[in-house]
Amino acid sequence: MLTVILLLGTASAQLALQGEKSSRNDRDHQIAFQAAEAALIDAEMDIQQSPDPLRSRSHLFVAEILQDEAVLAEGECGAGMQNAWLGVCRQLRMESEAAWKRIDFLAAGNATTAIPYGHFTGRSFQTGIGTLPAALPRYIIEYMPYRGPGQSAEQVEYLYRITAVGFGVRETTRVALQSFYRKMPL
């Protein structure tokens, strides 16, 4: 009788531990997901109108500047933490591999660097221990020509593909989200 009770107790303890591990992993995934969503919103603010006028580069996201071949060549991404084009990539016309596949979302200060949250908007995001993400979420912006229905070839607008990566409590937990954004006229 004691052996049966011991086996039932052991099985119950194992089930409880598995449930706890499962809920911890789910919580970690949700934290990473929310961090990635925050990075998408930060990127949209970066494109549209940054709340920090000293860091803002929203004036660069206009057709007249983006059409200039000297800004970024096809398939090229901006480099250097001081560069105004950091994390901005120009889409290839016949793209074999999207820019977000070539970007190292963990690297800092090289040509394939993603933008850390708040770098151009001045916003802050807490990271650390406990239930906070292990690292700042990051994003890149790819711009591509867009012509709406009824627009002529001279009327070029740009559509922005934003790819964001958020981290969970463990840095190995990552969630990547992608959205398309069209800048609204001010």
From TrEMBL:
**Coiled-coil boundaries:** none
Give every Type 4 fimbrial biogenesis protein PilX N-terminal domain span: 1-40
Pfam families, from UniProt?
PilX (PF13681), PilX_N (PF14341)
Q: Where is the PilX/PilW C-terminal domain?
A: 131-183
This protein's source sits in the domain of life called Bacteria
State the InterPro entries in the record.
PilX/PilW_C (IPR025205), PilX_N_dom (IPR025746)
Protein name (record): Pilus assembly protein
